[in-house]
Amino acid sequence: MAQPITSPLGDQERDITAAALQATLVDLVDLSLVAKQAHWNLVGRQFHDIHLHLDELVETARTYSDKVAERLAAIGVSPDGRARTVSAASGVPEFAGGWVSDRDAVRQVFESVDVVARRVRPRIEDTEKADLVSQDLLIALTADLEEARWMWQAQNAGYQQADPADPKSA
Description:
Blueprint: H1 11-41, E1 42-43, H2 47-74, H3 83-89, E2 100-101, H4 102-126, H5 132-161
C-alpha cells in the first residue's frame, strides 16, 4: 500500500523518532503483558494489594503504548505491536509461567519496570533534535515509569528486609 500518512518531519528526523518510539512501543506492550501474567497468577498474603497495583501498572503501560503508537502514526510510520515483533524486540525480562508468589512477583515486576524506564531514558536524548513533541511524550512516560519503579522498588525492599525464617515478617 502506498504511504497514506505523510510525516510532518524530515526523513532523518522521522527515522530517528520512529526508532525511539517503536522500541518504546514494544517494551510497553511487553510490560503490560508481564504485569497481566503476574496479575492472573499471583498468590500470597499480599495478593489483594499487589493484584490491584498490577492493574495500575497495566493501565499505565497500555495508556502510554496507545499514545506512543498514535504518535508513530502521526509522524507517518505504521506502529508495530504484533506479538512476534514484541517478542523479538522487547528488552523486558522474561516472566516465567505458572503461579507466582507475591514476593517473587514484586521482585520481577520491579525488575521489568526498571528495565523499561532505563531503556526509555536514552531515547529522550535521541529525539531531542529530531522531534520535541515525541521527546515530550517520552519525558512524561519516563516520569510515570520512574514513579512506578520507585513504588515497586519500595515494595520489593520491604520483602528483602523481612526475615524469611520468620513467617510473620513475610
